[in-house]
Amino acid sequence: MTTLRVEHLRKTFQSAGEPLHVLRDVCMEVSGGQSLAIVGPSGSGKSTLLQILGALDRPEGGAYTVDGEDPFQLDDQAIAHWRNQKIGFIFQDHHLLPHLSVMENVLVPTLAGGRATEPLIERARELLDAVGLSQRVDHLPGMLSGGERERVAIARALLMSPALILADEPTGNLDRKTAEAVTEVLQQLQKENGAILICVTHSETLATAMDQQYELIDGKLVVPAVG
Asked: What would the pLDDT profile of 87-138 be if each residue is shown by its tens digit?
């Protein structure tokens, strides 16, 4: 079972005035099949933390491992491969390529390996069926609703069977009913695949749907006060 550990993670940005300590002492441990929400005001460092967990940015202190492996000990080529194999990203704006079909968008993560293999094409079909889009595989993103585009993004994120799914406001652009449906599909597939799901969100509904909830305050993760 996958285990993610974060110990005393720190990140500081230089500004015109004093240094901005975005992450001061972030600690957490999450196991495969579990989901976690991180809430907090804009500018609190939520997206910065997600970028570090996705190995898109580097911390300046502390430790981060997935199954005991520290991605920041790898060279640039190896870390890109690690990210492709281990991480599934879901963004608020889905980032689908408008000129590619639904199926082609789901298969985008295979480009790092050169081409899509038949097993991955079959997995893409299964994922699109699971998110209710088996009849839309040849459609372009512009022909889909916002909820459908977000479900394509979920299928794409899960294609490589990642150990860790990172979602940045995945329901931020959706109405309540659609957001609830997308959340249900995301959690169902995440648990079926035994992956870890970490969501950054302003949505209380999405946050409470996760197994655990944390708030990022003054650069530290704390359990939100009840009531």
From this structure: 999 987 778 999 999 999 999 999 877 778 999 999 999 999 999 999 999 9
pLDDT at res. 69: 94
CATH number of 3-96+148-222: 3.40.50.300
Residues 6+ apart with CB under 8 A from 18: none
Q: Give the domain ranges of the chain.
A: 3-96+148-222
Cα–Cα distance measured from residue 211 to residue 92, given in angstroms and rounded to the nearest whole number: 21
pTM listed for this prediction = 0.92
Q: Which residues contact 183 (CB under 8 A, 6 or more apart)?
A: 170, 171, 205, 206, 209
Cα separation of 120 and 112, whole Å?
13
Q: What share of the chain is helix, strand, coil (3-state, %, to 5)?
A: 35, 25, 35
